[in-house]
Amino acid sequence: MLEIVCYAFIAVVIIQALFYVVVFSKLAFYKKKKKAFQTSSAPLSVIICAKNEADNLKTFLPYIINQDYPEFEIVLINDASNDDTFEVMEHFSSLHANIKVVNVKSIEAFWGNKKYALTLGIKAAKYDLFIFTDADCKPLSKYWLQDMAGHFSSEKTIVLGYSPYAKIKNSFLNKLIRFETLMTAVHYFSFALSGLPYMGVGRNLGYTKDTFFKANGFINHIQVKSGDDDLFVNQVANSKNTAISLSKKSFTESKPKTSFKSWYKQKRRHVSTASFYKTNHKLILGLLYITNLLFWVLSILLFAFNFQWQLVLALFLFRMLLQYIFIGKSSKKLLEKDLILLFPLLEFFLVFIQLTIFINNLISKPNHWK
């Protein structure tokens, strides 16, 4: 039996190595190409859907208002908040002519569904380019819009950005959250560069009005309460129409969760959308996760029984070396190099937390977005 386990471990390491060398190397060694066509001066609409975000809007909205960009509007969507969100939006709107407020009242058919509110906001937007972010996000530079919009062209109608979480000193949970965010970004950027874009994150995402309406908006997955970002990108993105933005000036920084319970609940909601991805995406991502899980389970089992430990150790270190090379280089591009030394520990915890999330989601459905 242990011999079979050992062969399985060898197969798992080979598959993992192929993912690192064939896919993740795309991001690790990516070099920005000069664009032949650029529309960074085209007017655009920044769209922010907020629910009970009064304090965050007061803190972070000025960073968006003060963007260095020729012409843009900010569409603020109040999604049936029960705090002062609408009043805060109205206050900013009274001070800035380029701010438009869309007040959405909850209706029974779409209760707790962010996509309904977003659709109303998108319909109210007047420009053809959309940049999406969240109320608790802060652009890391005043050139965020310039960098994101600069990737649009006659061919590229979807732009995938990156939104790291703010760092909290001496917090293992914060490092775990940031590692999970880093790995998610490495995956969606690397697959996009490999010609297989499958998701984006609404904290930093762009697409055109035409792309939205040609797809009939969110109608194909309107019954799914999450996925306004990743399910939409999964539906419309392809190898030709998708660009990525890796400039540090184009990043938006988000407020991280500070309790394991709140983060776990958030991840349950995010993971629940994966079952609605295209079949080929589910198969590839499923293989990636299963081999990741088996790498740890089988190595622990073989080490515990001291079976062929020299071979197992060599394969274990080989795979970890690949991670340090490829994910390490990518982490530097994405401003997360302080996580590099903790990769094995963080990955170990994350793999088994994800397993519990999958099991929990099979038993019960996660709640709506807020």
CATH structural architecture of the domain at 44-172 and 196-257? Alpha-Beta Complex
Radius of gyration: 21 Å
How is the largest sheet built, in terms of strand order?
Answer: 3-2-1-4-7-6-8
CATH topology label of the domain at 44-172 and 196-257 = Spore Coat Polysaccharide Biosynthesis Protein SpsA, Chain A
> Quick one: CATH class of the domain at 44-172 and 196-257?
Alpha Beta
User: Sheet bearing the most strands, described?
Assistant: 7 strands, mixed
The global form is globular
Tally of alpha and pi helices: 12
**Unreliable segments of 5+ consecutive residues:** none
Mean pLDDT: 93
Amount of helix: 40-55%
Tell me the fraction of residues in β-strands, as a range.
5-15%
Distance between the termini: 48 Å
Structural class: alpha/beta
Q: What is the chain-wise order of helices and strands? A: HEHEHEHEEHEHEHHEEHHHH
Q: What is the CATH superfamily label of the domain at 44-172 and 196-257?
A: Spore Coat Polysaccharide Biosynthesis Protein SpsA, Chain A
Characterize this entry briefly.
Belongs to the glycosyltransferase 2 family. This protein has helices spanning 2-28, 54-65, 85-95, 114-124, 144-149, 172-193, 209-214, 230-236, 260-271, 279-304, 309-333, 343-363, and strands at 44-50, 72-79, 99-104, 129-133, 137-139, 158-160, 205-208, 242-244, 252-254.
